[in-house]
């Protein structure tokens, strides 16, 4: 039976992973008493006793935890610490060659939530030659407040909500958001996009949009759609053409799959990905990567639906 240890199980992502794995009969969870949760020697023992370790820690703590691991366990890091590091497979298996790299690797960097949506839209076009790697892009990303962790969840769920939390709030104003390096690297872009993340008063869900003029493409809107159709056939990431007048950022709440679409017309194009920031944007992706490493059905334990 596969032994799993979650280092940092008290945080939002760690808790979600623990909840998802609790009912799995093919796994056993290694746990530490509360008083040993931050004890380095106890954590080192747990890490090296496991077959799979999820790191759900701040970046520096994740680096320290990874250094405690010997050759045995597979490490799946949900922090930002190793997403652009050499020797770590980037955990977005839907892109060409990535699933095989994840299978072979003992070190997997789980993607960031905003980054997942951007990369799903842009990387296939860059790799297919439809979008020049020198393209100057802008990305808007709407997210539910659960992506901010326990502190932000408590702010939004307080009995008295501060006035400013009643409206969407843009952040990352310095254009130094921590997801930008992986967004640029995984799409092999010469320049990081202008990135506008926005948090709003809903629990979970994410809607990432990249806008294009046709002159930015070496092809047409239909070529973009066909690229997505060919690549995203499921089960987790799927191309769809929603017959909706509006797209809600919480449309995929509670799910672990992602919808990718290309909308607009011959003059202006919008590329949009819809998913749950806690699902395909965090714990769902981590479990999918674990399933791939273990040679299981990659949707095992995930909430996947056939339609919107």
Looking at how many chains there are and whether they match, the oligomeric state comes to single chain
What is the CATH homology-level superfamily of the largest domain? Answer: Dihydrodipicolinate Reductase, domain 2
CATH class of the largest domain: Alpha Beta
**Radius of gyration using CA atoms only:** 19 Å
Strand percentage, roughly? 15-25%
**How many strand segments?**
13
> How do the strands of the widest beta sheet line up side by side?
8-9-7-10-13-12-11
Structural class comes to: alpha/beta
Q: Please, how many helices?
A: 9
Task: Output the helix-strand order.
Answer: EHEHEHEEHEHEHEHEEHEEEH
Q: Any low-confidence stretches, pLDDT <50, length ≥5?
A: none
* Main pleated sheet: 7 strands, mixed
Quick rundown:
This protein has 308 residues and is an alpha/beta fold.
